[in-house]
Design goal:
This is Hemerythrin-like domain-containing protein. Pfam families: Hemerythrin (PF01814). It comes from Noviherbaspirillum aridicola. By secondary structure, the chain is an all-alpha fold. It has one domain. The chain is 80% helix and 0% strand. It is built from five helices and no strands. Helix 1 runs antiparallel to helix 2, helix 2 runs antiparallel to helix 3 and helix 2 packs antiparallel against helix 5. The radius of gyration is 17 Å and the shape is globular.
């Protein structure tokens, strides 16, 4: 596929789907920096809400499309990543049960952040280079990821509309 079809900053790079994951990783790092570099509880809560939403959609994309599509490159590493996702999902579920303004939430959130940053480093430094060396045609996977991401965005927009009506 011609990469010129993907020139917009927000378009999904279907022929280079790892770039979309890297973009999410960078967004997480930027939001974590905002979270950690403020004394304002409100700024922390806002950054945390954005991070949690991004982690949820990113995880669904990786678990639903990316990992199944690249499992053959290194099945053991993908199993490891899925286990890390499961542990993080459990912490995220715990966070959803309490208010982000609860002091306990900050502790759990820090654990989520540390686990996520560790996971990002493993993906970027260990798995993505292996994936690049595998020389796979990533376009079919990129198209699936693009469709999955668009579907998630549609579902979130519907949920937001329903929430606004209440």
């Amino acid at each position: 596929m011609d990469s010129t079809m993907n020139e917009g900053n927000n378009s999904f790079p279907v022929d280079r789907p790892v770039e979309a994951l890297l973009r999410d990783h960078q967004m997480v790092r930027t939001l974590v920096e905002s979270y950690r570099n403020t004394d304002s509880d409100q700024v922390k809560i806002n950054a945390a809400e954005q991070i949690l939403m991004l982690l949820e959609t990113h995880s669904l994309l990786e678990e639903g499309v990316f990992y199944p599509g690249v499992r053959d490159v290194n099945p053991e590493m993908i199993d490891h990543f899925e286990q890390e996702h499961q542990k993080t999902d459990e912490m995220l579920a715990e966070l959803k049960r309490i208010s982000l303004s609860d002091p306990q939430a900050f502790t759990i959130f820090e654990q989520v952040v540390e686990a996520t940053l560790h996971h990002i480093e493993e993906e970027e430094n260990e798995f993505f280079p292996q994936l690049e060396q595998a020389n796979m045609d990533m376009t079919p996977l990129g198209l699936q990821m693009q469709a999955h991401e668009a579907n998630l965005a549609h579902i979130q927009a519907q949920a937001n509309q329903q929430g606004a009506r209440r």
